[in-house]
Write a structure and sequence with these properties.
There is one protein chain. It contains eight helices and two strands; from the N terminus they run ααααβααβαα. Helix 3 packs antiparallel against helix 4, helix 3 packs antiparallel against helix 6 and helix 5 packs antiparallel against helix 6. Strands 1-2 form a two-stranded antiparallel sheet. It is mainly alpha-helical and 240 residues long.
């Protein structure tokens, strides 16, 4: 294995490490730190495939390694984080346990389906909500609840969020990949300007903005599917 082919795997290792460290933080009750580590893991995960394609070194090994890393960083880590979070708010143990396991199970099914249907290393869209986005949405919720809501946190809302995200992951709703940024058309320039505004808001109002933003992105596929269903009856067979 040469340096170019090893570089993407190093990003995957970094993502796996962040996920594992997040579990340790969650067990220690450091919920915000655990949530931030999951977000960092997602950032690293977003670049391993891009780097592999840039150096023309994508491989089936990289795909499988990435999947195994994902189930830890974006399946087990956020589920355990939510379970520990529920323990601080609820006396019941079985319901939170079941909801957290449901999220892990849906994430594992989502990854297994992705790998079984993978035909090329270039992805134009995804079937079902990608598991890193689901994990980031839960992480953003934890940060929002801790830093913005303070004492008004509602555990049943968090459990409902886990269930909805799990269902979106195993659905057949189509999610488009992040568009490539260009400056060729007015639409491209507006897209770049919008991204710049979002980055600024994230820098100055991270805890207030991050959860609404990730929630909108997580629900965007379902909203798009519903819009197409209402406006074009031919998509009625495209259902979750």
């Amino acid at each position: 294995m040469n340096a170019k082919s090893a570089l993407p795997s190093l990003f995957t290792v970094g993502s796996l490490f962040c996920g594992f460290l997040s579990i340790n933080y969650a067990l220690d009750g450091k919920f915000v730190g655990a949530a931030l580590l999951i977000v960092i893991a997602a950032f690293l995960d977003a670049f391993d495939g891009k780097i592999a394609r840039y150096f023309d070194t994508p491989s089936n090994f990289g795909v499988q390694f990435d999947t195994i890393s994902d189930i830890c960083s974006f399946g087990l880590a956020p589920a355990l984080l939510m379970l520990q979070y529920f323990d601080t708010l609820m006396d019941s143990r079985w319901l939170p346990f079941g909801v957290s396991f449901f999220f892990v199970m849906c994430g594992a099914l989502r990854l297994a389906r992705f790998n079984s249907q993978l035909k090329s290393f270039e992805k134009e869209n995804f079937t079902g909500l990608p598991i890193p986005m689901a994990a980031c949405t839960l992480s953003a919720y934890i940060m929002f609840a801790d830093r913005v809501w303070n004492s008004t946190r509602e555990p049943h809302l968090a459990m409902s969020l886990c269930v909805v995200l799990g269902l979106l992951m195993v659905s057949t709703i189509e999610y488009v990949t992040f568009p490539k940024l260009k400056l060729e058309t007015t639409r491209d320039r507006l897209r770049l300007a919008s991204l710049f505004v979002v980055v600024l808001l994230m820098c100055f109002y991270t805890y207030e903005v991050f959860f609404p933003l990730t929630l909108i992105m997580a629900l965007s596929g379902a909203a798009r599917w519903l819009f197409l269903l209402i406006t074009n009856r031919e998509v009625a067979d495209f259902h979750p």
